[in-house]
Specification:
The complex is a heterodimer of chains A (about 110) and B (about 240). Chain A is mostly helical. Helices cover about 70% and strands about 0% of the residues of chain A. Chain B has about 240 residues and is mainly alpha-helical. In chain B, about 75% of the residues lie in helices and about 0% in strands. Chain B is built from eleven helices and no strands. Chain B is globular, with a radius of gyration of 20 Å. The chains are: A mainly alpha (about 110), B mainly alpha (about 240). Chains A and B meet through helix 1, helix 2, helix 3 and helix 4 of A and helix 1, helix 2, helix 3, helix 4 and helix 5 of B.
């Protein structure tokens, strides 16, 4: 990506923050979201985040599907998932997940490459 | 300015104390995003510009792999909007408390209202009736929150550029997204939507312009709605 394109992306990301957080502060009671619409909106963020995390965990750099125990990201991701469900603590989860990822990668457990 | 909006040091301090336990977490989360920005290939200036202007961890993290893959700018914008949709719901709850303020202030306070500040404010002031100290309490939550986030984020940017890429610190960003996603999966319908979205995104990753991502969100939402409809129909019939 060209330098200016990245700055354009940064500008648009800032716009997406302002639009989603401030619109209701600006228009107030003149607009109400229909309840049905609110329900649809409720599911969107989780789906979007899943659509980012999923490929990140199972596709390697060459876009090949890696559904084996030799994939350190997949295993560390599952460890982190289990840990978060257990402790509900984001920071500890990130630390535990990174520790698992690093150990699997560095010591080539299950033949994991690094 | 309404009389109950006068500067109220006690309320400001109360807001600060309510938010205090979260500040360390916010700073650390900012640090993770800071590291991820640098490790995905942004320059120091771009990473600093992004954190100072965007001020949204999840949309920043969502955009990074798309920037690295040179996805079209409009796809990145659309993805950020979708990830940020939860703020529309939060702001619909928070904004009615402050509609009497002049619009530049409303724009600013809306912009800096993060997830945690909103949740803590609504715990303290559940109803919309004017109350003394509301504005100061909110400032006590939001301003330290902004400072903690930016401090952590800038520290992460400089830390990230000092640490070798081979350490794989960027993976912390993926783990962070995982941790934001899980609490959003509130019921079976949402779980189904999340699974469908992940599978579609993996299967459709080769689609041009990273359109697999938007397709995944759409199909995930539709499946969540379908599950919800089926459950409602089932309980109506058997309930």
């Amino acid at each position: 990506m060209a330098e200016w394109e990245i700055w354009a992306v940064i500008g648009l990301l800032a716009l997406s923050t302002v639009v989603t957080r401030s619109t209701f502060w600006m228009v107030g009671h003149k607009v109400t979201i229909p309840p049905r619409m609110l329900e649809v909106l409720r599911y969107a963020p989780a789906c979007a985040l899943a659509a980012i995390v999923g490929p990140d965990l199972v596709l390697d750099g060459g876009e090949q599907l890696q559904l084996t125990v030799a994939n350190p990201k997949l295993l560390a991701g599952l460890v982190a998932l289990a840990f978060y469900l257990w402790r509900r603590n984001m920071l500890l989860t990130i630390l535990v997940g990174m520790l698992a990822f690093t150990l699997l990668r560095v010591f080539h457990v299950f033949g994991a490459g690094g | 300015m309404a009389p109950h909006d006068h500067h109220d040091p006690a309320a400001l301090r109360a807001g600060f104390l309510a938010g205090l336990p979260t500040l360390f977490g916010i700073a650390a989360w900012g640090m993770v995003v800071g590291v991820a920005m640098v490790k995905s290939g942004l320059t120091l200036a771009q990473a600093c510009g992004m954190t100072l202007l965007v001020f949204g961890g999840s949309s920043q993290l969502a955009a990074l792999p798309l920037i690295a893959a040179a996805a079209p700018v409009w796809v990145i914008f659309a993805t950020a909007l979708v990830v940020n949709l939860r703020f529309v719901i939060f702001s619909a709850l928070l904004a009615p408390h402050f509609m009497h303020l002049p619009w530049p202030k409303r724009l600013l306070y809306g912009y800096i209202s993060g997830d945690l500040s909103t949740a803590l404010f609504l715990q303290r002031f559940p109803d919309y009736a004017p109350a003394p100290g509301k504005l100061s309490y909110m400032q006590g939550l939001m301003i330290p929150n902004w400072c903690a986030w930016q401090t952590g984020s800038l520290a992460g940017i400089f830390l990230g550029s000092a640490v070798p890429t081979a350490w794989g610190l960027g993976f912390a960003g993926t783990l962070a997204i995982l941790c934001i996603m899980i609490p959003l999966v509130a019921n079976g319908a949402a779980l189904c939507g999340v699974l469908v979205a992940a599978v579609v995104a993996i299967g459709a990753h080769a689609l041009p312009y990273k359109l697999g991502l938007l397709l995944a969100v759409l199909l995930g939402m539709l499946s969540a709605m379908a599950v919800e409809e089926t459950q409602a129909w089932w309980s109506k019939r058997h309930g």
